[in-house]
Amino acid sequence: MDKELTEKFFDILHEELVPALGCTEPIAIALASAKARDVLGRIPEHIIAKCSGNLIKNVKSVIVPNTENLVGIEASAIVGAVGGDFSKGMEVLSTVTHEQLEYAKKLYAAKICEVELLDTPLNLHLIICADAGNDHVEVEIRNLHDNITRIEKNGKIIYDAKENDGLYYGVLTDRSILSFDRIYDFAVNTPLERLKAVFSEQIEDNMRIAEEGLTGKYGVGIGTSIISNEDSVAAKIKGYAAAASEARMSGCIMPVITNSGSGNQGIAASIPVIVYAREKGIGEEQLYRALALSNLLTIYQKTFIGRLSAFCGAVSATAASGGAITFLAGGTPDQIKMTLINALANVSGIVCDGAKASCGAKISAGLDAAITGHYLAMDGKFYQPHTGILQSDIDQTISAVGRMAMEGMRDTDKVILKIMLGE
């Protein structure tokens, strides 16, 4: 891989592997609300949170971190406006004080925030409208959780982002350079020290929240149940990853290194690889190379799917981590491709019905498929092209799954939202 392409791959990794405190959808709302307060110059007296259907779906059932178990869009917007620190990005709620939270609870009880369904073709789209006295501010986020595209005060535009058509979502490095062969080349041949600089924080942060999740304080304690009932490396892989997700969805205030805008995807792309390497006594260099492979394969798949959809993103990330496990086990590039194909042939039908504690169970299910796919691949077995949605090679298969998720599941997404809203 030439130097220019290598640097673009690093740009992609830096863009996609971002620390976030809590589920990224409520955090996006809190981020926009914190910015609105800064522009307004004081805490709003009234807020309207206009959100796309996918945002409503993903915020409805998840606990907002640092809020003592508050849930929902209203809580995200109000706490962001009262105590959010916009300069901290996706960790905007990390410094909320007890006094700020108590005041936010009073505003929450007073119902100063309304929620509206935003009529938009975009899956990730929100507008925070904040009022205080005679002042009115609007902050708009589109496509990416922290991508503020418009700020308006009292009818005057003070910021308007101009999208660059040559970039992914208009703001990120072009993703058309990604392919399986290029990703494998990058993972295998990039100097180790450069990979360590990218992935060390992911190992530290994501494993820390996994250990926290295994304390049993969160949700149903899925991680401990898996590990206590099955003594195997596969059980530890599933248990640690599921526990990290469950803690995050249940309000744990530890940050996670995300992948493609999702903490659960960051967890599923990294923890299984880390646990497998540690359990098998595999050295540092191979671990970092496997993490590069897994994370980039996740990003590659999500490029075709988009940030939010009715397709569970854990499927993409667990399939990628399964491929990285095959790499760690000494598998060839063809066997890594087989692992991905086998996993995607199995669980590509898992739907996303919002962010919540049971996302950990979906990660576990995805890892079951990934591990089975790995076993088959190591035996040289894989599901044949043109059976179901499988195509003639891995790149075409990834594209086909993305098409199914982005185009084919639009109506599914609408029905899921209606069910969740009791319609």
Summarize the structure.
This protein is α+β, with helices and mostly antiparallel strands. Helices cover 55% and strands 10% of the residues.
List the strand order in the largest sheet: 3-2-4-5-6-7
Helix count equals 16
Total beta strand runs: 8
Rounded average pLDDT? 95
Radius of gyration over all CA atoms, rounded: 21 Å
Net shape: globular
Helix content: 55-70%
Low-confidence stretches: none
**Biggest sheet descriptor:** 6 strands, mixed
Task: For this entry, give a set of tags.
two-stranded antiparallel ribbon, six-stranded mixed beta sheet, globular, alpha+beta, 8 strands
Description:
By secondary structure, the chain is of the alpha+beta class. 55% of the residues lie in helices and 10% in strands. It has 16 helices and eight strands. A six-stranded mixed β-sheet has the order 3-2-4-5-6-7. It has a two-stranded antiparallel ribbon with strand order 1-8. A hairpin with a 2-residue loop joins strand 6 and strand 7. The model has no long low-confidence stretch (mean pLDDT 95).
